[in-house]
């Protein structure tokens, strides 16, 4: 498969096909990411389109671009932040000084991602995390960015990204465990070992 770097190089030379290939590769993931940030698909479409426009401008001006994927996510995130500060956003129902708390996921927790229903639980559980940890988990597991790429997007040291990811996974593991225990209690589906160990009071063990 042609690499991001090759696509960027070809785009810088005016290759329309390379641009279309890049759109195919990144439009969906970026739209999903921005929609989660804004909770407004229409506005998200606008921001993704503007992200690609800025990519074209950058390549025309500088002729090259290293680390294409984190660059795209960083531009998209900055455009979201610009929108949150804009007059149009301030005129909406959300308080002007309040950025939205994202609730959009998680390895060691890699085993938790094996089942689709668990992924949905993870999405809901993100609300328990600080915003920065939500961002790191979302980029790592929903959008498959590498840790260094996340550090580049968020302008954080790599060590900070690692510590936030580790802290988030520990919290998510606890939240998910409690959710599973509550679900088992409500449905009556207790672990088999626990069921077998319980003997009714009126029975005698021989």
TrEMBL record:
Biased composition (Basic and acidic residues): 193-206
Domain RNA polymerase sigma-70 region positions: 22-88, 126-173
Taxonomy, superkingdom: Bacteria
Region (Disordered): 187-206
Keyword set includes Transcription regulation: yes
CDD domains from the UniProt entry: Sigma70_r4 (cd06171)
Gene3D superfamilies cross-referenced by the UniProt entry: 1.10.1740.10, Winged helix-like DNA-binding domain superfamily/Winged helix DNA-binding domain
Record bears the keyword Metal-binding: no
Keywords in alphabetical order: DNA-binding, Sigma factor, Transcription, Transcription regulation
Coiled coil segments of this chain: none
Assigned protein family: Belongs to the sigma-70 factor family. ECF subfamily.
The protein, known as: RNA polymerase sigma factor
């Amino acid at each position: 498969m042609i690499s991001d770097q090759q696509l960027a190089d070809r785009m810088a030379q005016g290759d329309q096909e390379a641009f279309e290939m890049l759109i195919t590769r990144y439009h969906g993931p970026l739209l999903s990411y921005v929609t989660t940030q804004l909770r407004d698909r229409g506005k998200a479409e606008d921001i993704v389109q503007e992200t690609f426009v800025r990519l074209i401008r950058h390549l025309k001006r500088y002729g090259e671009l290293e680390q294409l994927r984190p660059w795209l996510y960083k531009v998209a995130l900055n455009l979201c932040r610009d929108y949150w500060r804009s007059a149009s956003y301030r005129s909406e129902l959300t308080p002007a000084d309040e950025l939205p708390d994202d609730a959009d996921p998680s390895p060691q927790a890699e085993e938790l991602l094996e089942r689709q229903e668990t992924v949905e639980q993870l999405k809901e559980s993100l609300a328990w995390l600080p915003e920065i940890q939500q961002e790191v988990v979302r980029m790592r597991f929903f959008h498959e960015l590498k840790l260094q790429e996340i550090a580049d997007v968020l302008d954080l040291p790599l060590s900070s990204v690692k510590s936030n990811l580790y802290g988030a996974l520990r919290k998510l593991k606890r939240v998910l465990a409690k959710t599973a225990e509550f679900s088992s209690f409500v449905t009556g589906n207790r672990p088999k070992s626990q069921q077998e160990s319980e003997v009714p009071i009126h029975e005698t063990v021989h």
